[in-house]
Specification:
There is one protein chain. By secondary structure, the protein is an all-alpha fold. Helix content is 77%, strand content 0%. It contains three helices and no strands. Helix 1 runs antiparallel to helix 3.
Length: 75
Amino acid sequence: MEKPPMNLPSTPTETIRSLLFEKAASLNQQLLKRLTDVSDHISRGENLGVIGALEGLDSDLESIRTLMRLMRDHF
């Protein structure tokens, strides 16, 4: 018989928090990728590449901020 994974959330609140953190982690990885792209374009002097890589950065940051506020205020 298989043992269940050790870190399963035990309550609905913990499950929701876990999902919110997973989403935030995913968005954070997107941000890190964008910033790496920005750095690469800057080092090559590619101003249009920098602008393109920055597109959506504010939106991703705001999404993470919103998820954290949701947790703070409701979970």
